[in-house]
Structures are given as C-alpha cells and as structure tokens.
Amino acid sequence: MTPERQTVDVAGRHVRVTHLEKVMYPSTGTTKAEVMDYLVRVAPALLPQLHERPVTRIRWPDGVAGEKFFEKNVPRGAPEWLRRQTLPAAPNNDDDEGTELVLPFVDDLAGLVWCANQGALELHTPQWTVGPRGGVRPPDRLVIDLDPGAPAGLDECARVAHLVADRLRDDGLGETVPVTSGSKGMQLYARLPGKRSAPEVRQYARDLAFALAKQHPSLVVAVMRKELRGGKVLLDWSQNHPAKTTITPYSLRGRELPRVAAPRWWDEIGPGLDQLGPDEVVDRLARDGDPFA
C-alpha cells in the first residue's frame, strides 16, 4: 500500500508527494499518480513551453469535482529549489502599475511533479519571459485565442484559424502553431523576434481581430459582448496583455473529462476536429513529434 506521504527523488531533487491514489477526474477515475505519469511522459515537450515563463496555477486539491482556486505567488511550503522571482504584477506594460508578486518558474521535471502534487492541473503562462538574472524581456510570441459562441464549435474555429494564420503570414510573422485548447476552442501561436513592447503587440493583435471581424462579419467577432457572439468565433486579442496568461501547450485542463491543450498539425485543422486526451497526446508525440519543434 502506498504511504499517504512520501518523498521521491526526481532527477536529483527531493519532492514530497501525497495521496497518489486520489481521484482527480471522477468521470474517468484518473488519479494523481496518473496525472504525474502524463507530465513525466510529455515533459520533453512541455518544459520548453514553460522555460523562463512564470507559471500561474489553477489548483483542484480534491480533483475537478471539488473547488478550484488560482495561484500566482509561490505558496508556503514550496521547495527551496523552486526558482522564484519578484516581479511587478504587469511587467513590460507602459499603461499599468501593479503590485509585486513572487512568481514561480517550473524549469524541470521535479517542478512538474510538485505542481501535480499540489493539484495544479492547469499551468498558465504569459507571452514574455524572464532571464536568469531577473530581467523581463519583451514578448517572444503572439497568441490569438479562438473562442466559439454556441452553436459554433471547433469546426468554425478551424475555418477562422486558417483566416488568422493567412493574415499573420501576410504580415511577416511566418508559420503559426494551432493548439486545440482542451476546452471549447483553440489558440494560434506565432513567434516574435522580441523587439516589440507588450502594448505594441497587444495593439497589433487587436487591429488584426477587428480587421478580420469586419471582413468576415458572419463568422468572426472581436468584442466580448455575449449578445454578439452567438454562432461566431471571438478572436480574443486581450491574451497579449502583459498581465494575462494563457493555458500552456501540453497542460492538462480541469474539466469533467481529462483533456489537454494539444498542439496540432495544420493538415488536421478542418471539419471534425476534436479535443484530445492525455493518452492521445502522448501517443501523437511519440509517433508524429512536436509541432512546436
């Protein structure tokens, strides 16, 4: 029988784990140990997504059937080896001044196991990074969140994703990576050279969203008002605000069924697109590789 509390060696770091048999997803019986196993298997793809980005966690200590809460700061009792940095609440933002936060960085496999033990199923990250000496860099990626308004769904998101990708390519941002969110919609990521400020990137994303909404008014909307979103896809440009975070590619989601924010290949983005579970994502990585690579 597994002890309720134990310390395990994870790549040379000591990580305390508890209640590995706890069911995190009652609909499938998925346990905390199985969540950890998933993270171990996708770590080669997930850790580069987390690299040098502070991690906001959404925690379900008693599984997805229980209460959840957001956590930005490093919690009490966090291991000493966990990297942390004191930063303003919205760094690299010319408009806002916020309070300071002590933010954690999940740089290695031990950090992933620690997150899973905390019930932190969702790992969210900003579009900017922090250097080893604490310097906050400009955004190195742009993200457009595609959020469908019922009865629209992933099929509509797929159509809009191609429109967005074409516009980003025309604007010189190169190829993008689509990610089905593990929830309702999807995200598109484009690499940036790190020369634009966060407000400049946010303004560009806003202009793009409103331009596409004007060109495709029956399919795309750029404002969040619910009465305008029915049957359309919202292009959420606000995810590029420096204070905002987005679900990290390869992170689990805290939904009824275990689903993953799953990077996809462009030839998949069409009718019949579906959200993926953890076993599917692991199998795809082994078979097809990482679209972000």
UniProtKB/TrEMBL annotation:
Ranges for domain DNA ligase D polymerase: 31-292
Segments forming a coiled coil: none
InterPro entries: LigD_pol_dom, MtLigD_Pol-like, NHEJ_LigD
Organism of this sequence: Cellulomonas fimi (strain ATCC 484 / DSM 20113 / JCM 1341 / CCUG 24087 / LMG 16345 / NBRC 15513 / NCIMB 8980 / NCTC 7547 / NRS-133)
Name of this chain's protein: DNA polymerase LigD, polymerase domain protein
